Amino acid sequence: MKNVLLSTRDLKKVYGKRDSKFEALKGIDLDIQKGESVAIIGKSGSGKSTLMHLLALLDKPSEGHITLNGKNTSNLKQRKLNRLRNKEFGFVFQSFFMNANDNVLNNVILPLKIAGVRRSERRRRAMEALKTVELDDKAKNKAKDLSGGQKQRVCIARALVNNPKVIFADEPTGNLDSATGAKIEELLFNLNREKGITLIIVTHDEELAEKCDRQIRIADGKIVTDGKGVAKHDPSFIEDENLDGMRDRNHTKEIDVEAE
């Protein structure tokens, strides 16, 4: 499929050895389209954050592979991997990860420094990103003097500054009150709709997840639901040849499943 941006096949991640061995992911097959907004949902320990870290090339799988724009990333050397990640991805984290004692502008500029962009261009692009999140007037303020919502908007500006194809947002509203969180959500979804940036959100917030085009639910290292369908390996469901979909073992409800 030519519109697939990120793809995984038989993706597995194992931590530890022998008695301490833990299978965080147990064979994930997943395609994410260009311009989609996707929520990855699951309880603590389900594997959702591990999946995000692998998709974002922040970690390497134990088995399986990840392709970006049709290219296998498995054999890339670390320097090329870092360059690719910096160019293609933006990150918005719950904990902000900002230099509190530096000013807002310098925090936003950081990815451009890593990319080797010249100084004048760095400033222009950083100010443009700050204008997008309506914080260009705070460029000289120290990060520690901002409110929680302002800090998260700075993080979004930093994620935008390299014109990424994908923004990964890990619990982006988790540290914010509901009103401020709603503004951050609106900003992220506007970027998805207006700029065509693929948005991948890791969350346990069902209301936030429902706002995405697609919801992928993870449990025990496996995908159990994807969008409106139910994964066929979900043990709570069985196929029924008399139905155009699947129903639970007690035959109490029917759920449509797209043909594979």
Note the main attributes of this structure.
260 residues; 14 strands; seven-stranded mixed beta sheet; Rossmann fold; alpha/beta; four-stranded antiparallel beta sheet
What does this entry show, briefly?
This protein is α/β, with parallel strands linked by helices. The protein contains seven helices and 14 strands. A hairpin with a 5-residue loop joins strand 13 and strand 14.
Note the gap between the termini: 13 Å
Shape: globular
Which runs of at least 5 residues are low in confidence (pLDDT < 50)? 229-260
The CATH architecture category equals 3-Layer(aba) Sandwich
Return the CATH topology. Answer: Rossmann fold
Could you explain the architecture of this structure?
Helices cover 31% and strands 29% of the residues. It has 260 residues and is an alpha/beta fold. A hairpin with a 5-residue loop joins strand 13 (245-248) and strand 14. Helix 4 (119-132) crosses helix 5 (148-160). The longest helix has 18 residues, at 178-195. Residues 229-260 have low confidence and may be disordered.
